What does this fold into?
Amino acid sequence: MFEENPTSTYLGRPGAPLPTGNDLLQNPMLNKGTAFSCAEREAFGLLGLMPAHVATMDDQVERVMEGVRRNSTALGKYIAMMALFDRNRALFYRVLTDHLQELMPIIYTPTVGQACKKFSHIYRKGRGLYLSALNKGRIAELLRNWSYEDVRMVVVTDGERILGLGDLGVDGMGIPVGKLSLYTACAGIHPTYCLPVTIDVGTNNDELLQDPLYLGMRQARIRGAEYDALIEEFVLAVQEVFPQAVLQFEDFANCNAFRLLQTYQHRVCCFNDDIQGTASVALAGIYSALRLTGLPLTEQTFLFLGAGEAGTGTGNLLVAALMAEGLSEAQARQRCWFVDSKGLVVQSRQGLAPQKQPFAHDYPQQDNLLSAVRSLKPTALIGVSGQGQAFSEAVLAEMATLNKRPIIFALSNPTSKSECTAEQAYAATAGQAIFASGSPFAPVVLEERILVPGQGNNVYIFPAIGLAAMATGAEYITDEMFLVAALALAAQVTDADLAQASVYPPLTKIREVSALIAVAVADLIYEKGLARTKRPDDLLNYIYSWMYQPAYPDYVDDRS
Ligand code: NAD
It folds into this structure.
């Protein structure tokens, strides 16, 4: 039977005696630093190992933030935060939760991209499991080397398509580590449940192969049957060693991502955030945008720049959403158009990748994005191409000519790859664009109006999906769950958010937002008979009972 959430807030191995002295201070899951009480210092041999004053967690948060802000660069702030991660996990999560708006761009995109690019040069600690092709046949054994026995959430990458930065090999580990810290900060997944994994199958990045400090295997990427066999061994090993774990595929290149999702989606409890999470967050943004335009979903024409994981994933979810509103599949697909690196995706093109074929329409090829916009007259332009500045002023202006309120989503990450900036989108459309981006942009003041660009960040979706799947013990994760998640996210966008042209709720509400999305998804999981736990009477309370609060437990009861 699926094991329910342990209620203990204990962060070490349940039942194990606490270490003492420096061993206690060096265990990030147990360490409280200067917040150890006098009784705890006495009981655990800590006297003299720190100054006399007993700090509160609030004092510690202030000290950490002072230190983080003293760094003049984003990368410096990232290094300071990760040093805290290594030292004191509860404090790390408390700082992150209290300052999410400020620290999310440090812990995740865009700064995590810089950190990954320098990973082998700034490496201090592993922070996750590195499974290399050299360990073939021993993957389960390596999983058992992880510090925690009860893992429920695994984020795995092979480092081939890190953000919009391409093949970073083993240096991509910053992504699963960063992503799992968002699972904890945003949806309260217990830190000890989280396991970041990088599968090292080599890299095709010459710069890394020639870098003497590069830490991964120095060989070209393994492909084909050997690659698939390694992934199969990994998936089976996760099932064997951590049978209650949800598996999230992250930043795999699209030559593998679609196939792996198709292979495992209905075999194990897994999802691909780049394909399905992005689709859900983008669809939620569209639902909100339609409240501003006042036009129904069925009357939209979507033009995507980029037909990869994010693009076709979103296209497929849009098709499901359009069909839910009464369109046939053929009619729904006719509403979604794609331009990729070779032009408009049309039937006359040879050798189209399988994921693009259902969107290849019988239509003449267009010279460029501008002519595609002029010809197709889209109501929404969605950038998922990884091509910075690809939405020219002329393209944006044309969208404003065609639509009173053009929907412009420039979702490529990191910031340098964004198809346009918020300022460019608003300037070229006289402030009429309904804009969202993948990486954050600051509010823009235009003719005394404050426009707040929404961040179409997958963080609104993946932590909630993970929480729902974990709390219900879902057997597997269906596409319909991402549709329900999009509706639940959109339902939490207030009229006040929309008045500022923001199509997502503020990040400051993320824990509440995640809980409510998780409730909607969990409800579906129970309804479809996919749960391995008994449906609780009060689903909201049940979901909240799974959410870790970053606080220190008392190791010594000195209240008497
Ligand atoms: P991908 O490699 O699967 O797809 C990229 C697509 O862009 C391909 O179809 C490619 O043909 C196309 N492309 C490349 N150059 C082009 C050009 N010059 N003109 C038109 N199309 C071009 O990558 P992906 O996973 O789909 O991610 C794409 C981008 O979306 C990345 O920058 C990623 O960071 C971003 N993304 C954002 C979010 C988010 O904001 N929520 C989520 C996922 C991905």
Q: What stands out?
A: Residues 56-268 form a domain with the Rossmann fold fold (CATH 3.40.50.10380). The first helix runs from residue 21 to 25.
